[in-house]
């Protein structure tokens, strides 16, 4: 329970639900918002509502989008034969920033984590299957994070996809083990993509 005026407490309790935000930080942010000019605070509140109202998951790649299909799925200049599988929308942004990849993506919206109750059914694997069965994909690049959950997910997908006759590759280990893809710098990420290996 956070002390202070009820409205400030409610804001702090809401902020506490965000990842990486502890009680102290939540209180500090709530007080910061209290001190913000009214216009900035309104912009922030509206931006949160807009995101919830306008965005959804692309019905093809499961990335976050306002249009369905998303601009990447809709881009005919991109190579349909290359499909890069990532965990989160942030990973697509990171890979796009490298400017090195002109294929398509599939966003799992997570990684396998049996201890947290995340199995294949909780990931966007069902949406992946028709894409793999379309006959258009030649190579699947597994670009899940280089940590325990990401490796387990890559292994699971490799076993699932290889019998379907496609080349399956894993991005190279330029990325520090245990880290997140969207924290890697562009050069490291571009090299990891370039140096991908068959699994
Ligand atoms: Zn899409």
Kindly list the characteristics that best describe this protein.
alpha/beta; 8 helices; binds zinc ion; 199 residues; two-stranded antiparallel ribbon
Brief digest:
With 199 residues, this protein is an alpha/beta fold. The chain is built from eight helices and seven strands, in the order αααββαβαβαβαβαβ. A five-stranded mixed β-sheet has the order 4-3-5-6-7. A two-stranded antiparallel ribbon has the order 1-2.
Description:
By secondary structure, this protein is an alpha/beta fold. The chain is built from eight helices and seven strands, in the order H-H-H-E-E-H-E-H-E-H-E-H-E-H-E. It has helices at residues 6-16, 23-35, 38-54, 71-74, 89-98, 128-133, 148-161, 186-194, and strands at residues 56-57, 64-65, 82-86, 104-107, 139-142, 167-170, 197-198. The strands form two sheets. Strands 4-3-5-6-7 form a five-stranded mixed beta sheet. A two-stranded antiparallel ribbon has the order 1-2. Strand 5 (139-142), helix 7 (148-161) and strand 6 (167-170) form a beta-alpha-beta unit. Zinc ion (ZN) binds at residues 58, 60-61, 63, 69-70, 72-73.
Number of helices: 8
Count every beta strand, where a strand is a DSSP E run of 2 or more residues: 7
Termini separation (Å)?
50 Å
**What proportion of the residues is helical, as a percent range?**
40-55%
Quaternary assembly: single chain
Strand order of the largest sheet: 4-3-5-6-7
Order of helices and strands: HHHEEHEHEHEHEHE
Lay out the secondary structure.
Blueprint: H1 6-16, H2 23-35, H3 38-54, E1 56-57, E2 64-65, H4 71-74, E3 82-86, H5 89-98, E4 104-107, H6 128-133, E5 139-142, H7 148-161, E6 167-170, H8 186-194, E7 197-198
Parallel strand pairs: 3-4, 3-5, 5-6
Antiparallel strand pairs: 1-2, 6-7
Helix pairs in contact: 1-2, 5-8
The chain binds zinc ion (ZN).
Residues 58, 60-61, 63, 69-70, 72-73 line the site of zinc ion.
